[in-house]
Fold this protein.
Amino acid sequence: MLSVDEALQQVLARAKAKPPTLCPLGQTLGLVLAEDISSDVDSPPHDKSVVDGYAVIAADLAAGPAELEILEEVTAGAVPTRALARGSAIRIMTGAPIPSGADAVVMVEQTQSLNSRNPLGRVRIATQRVTPGQNIMRRAASMTRGDLVLRAGVTIRSVEIGVLAEVGRTEVRAVGRPTLAVLPTGNELVSPGETPAAGQIRNSNGPILLAAARTAGAVVVDLGIARDDRVQLRDLIARGLESDILVISGGVSAGVLDLVPGVLAELGVRQIFHKIQLKPGKPLWFGSLASAAGERFVFGLPGNPVSSLVCFELFVRPLIGRLAGCDNTALEELAAPLAIDYTHRGDRPTYHPARLSTIDNRTLIEPLRWRGSGDLRTLVEANALACFPPGERAFRAGETIRVLRLP
Amino acid sequence: MLSVDEALQQVLARAKAKPPTLCPLGQTLGLVLAEDISSDVDSPPHDKSVVDGYAVIAADLAAGPAELEILEEVTAGAVPTRALARGSAIRIMTGAPIPSGADAVVMVEQTQSLNSRNPLGRVRIATQRVTPGQNIMRRAASMTRGDLVLRAGVTIRSVEIGVLAEVGRTEVRAVGRPTLAVLPTGNELVSPGETPAAGQIRNSNGPILLAAARTAGAVVVDLGIARDDRVQLRDLIARGLESDILVISGGVSAGVLDLVPGVLAELGVRQIFHKIQLKPGKPLWFGSLASAAGERFVFGLPGNPVSSLVCFELFVRPLIGRLAGCDNTALEELAAPLAIDYTHRGDRPTYHPARLSTIDNRTLIEPLRWRGSGDLRTLVEANALACFPPGERAFRAGETIRVLRLP
């Protein structure tokens, strides 16, 4: 049986970023940029004032406070029409171009207009010291026309959207979101709106997996519940193969009604692995299909919700990230000391639901009292997985173990 | 002038969670639950098998491997019709109810069917040891009917959606997402699709703030660009006051065309503070309006994009969180050693764009070479803010400073 790391390698071996599409800027948040972006402008486009105040010639104020004649007022969006000569000043707003001849700006708070009825007239510059260049941001200080300002491969956050707007890109090429279809299987499942009869339970896996896939950045397709019926199952799986990823839950362990692997084979999906060294999640099935529309990836997750969620986070989430064009797609890994004594026993590497908490600047990990892989309720307390090697060992509180943070 | 902490207190003082609304389960991801949730079922609903195999009486196997008569097969979703007697076994699937009389389940991998043509017949149980209770999860081990399973106030992740599905909730009361309108102001602004003329720049603040607000969980309204025109400004601000939060960028510093505070006052918005001890972001304006539809909150952010984004993350994000019903809404704070020597000087507490990186398990913070508050391009490298106290001081590489992680 493959280890978790070997299985993840096989999952990612055939996965590459989806082809780029041209997206309106407002729809790119969270996507990966698929082209290098150059600036079509200098930023700022001119030497600009970074405060509201007066553009001056520093030499006029070398001896301390002085009175200057106001030549004009330049508001943001306007351009100066006059050049400064010795003894004069121009009223200027934040962002406005520096008039020719000026070499500094004095903040309005350090000045006093000497003609209250007329914005022009004379102004007293009250500051003791004016340095050439002060309060001026030089043309192209942030970016020069032609500069490469964003590289293909970055994830587009709000700041990147701002840069794209600044350089005039209303559309950009970005990697599309992967699509992911979810198919829970089993005659025992009824929908959450129904009351289960004897032997039945409500379908919680479908809603969990749809929500987890949305959280991981996929566009989801809800295929409903598949019964243990070969014809219906084949139809639903064929529809699922229209998505980049098909996640089936249940139907891949050793039960006699576990029809899933046979139907997948019929539809041309090639098994890559089945069963791995993992607890919970040993029965994990993975396969792929080379289709005209691109490689399709199929996961058969164990039917119980905790195993299903652990397999999702360890294998499906990184695949979604890889198809979305992200380099680093795995869960955040850290080392943290145990909050309690804890005895682990198991024949496989175990990813145990656990709670990370930070108290007094110290982050501790506490494995939860987990009542087996069907116990979804305990997972509500979990925000991490505590990783234990196979075997039996009593860990002491304070001992450092490996932890994966859940999103 | 208020400190950053005092200003944040004032922003949050009047803010409370929005009234709950009834949401379909599939639309609750990321919302805060607004009711306590009890289970309407036992989970599991019956003693159930956690493996595919044979339900047996452990005492039949006390002496080691044995052959048993198979009475029937219980698939998932079905219920047993027979009770076990000594010397017999029932074939059982994962999740199926344990038949009366059985006290253990043996995995199918540890058995050998002795009649290949007929699933019934006899089975050889090959395992050396069978313990009463093995591979059985008891009725209600995860939850008992009537148990409180989720408390009002939790944020709904995929696991919570699973629990809600399990207890039959297709709709739940949850706190609605706050709405947030964005209004950049200034005659110098043109839309990203236009080529700026002399004195003009493209509107990058609007797209940044819309994206940052979506990232923080708000439903956004794009009001377009307001010119320095009192009538149009009044109309756009009135529309903005239909949202829970109105974020105006520009128009609140000391420029003569800064009409925003006057128009806000006319519309009944009461100023709570203007200017705070913060760099970048000193001109921040904040006010509120008690309207019939609930309290409205108005921010006037400085017009340059870096100040604007810092103010958004420090003040607007926590307000969005509070209105969405979250307890803990601030940016994650940590202490990290400086990656480089760094001299800070400034008359106000400074939140400097910086990069957190983890190398060899050590997380270091590097203040970026930031070319002033209009320098959006450098922010692309930033994933954190490095916090420096006022004054001038040379910090040495390795010295620990306060850091806020950007989302």
Summary: Chain B touches chain A through 98 residues (CB under 8 Å).
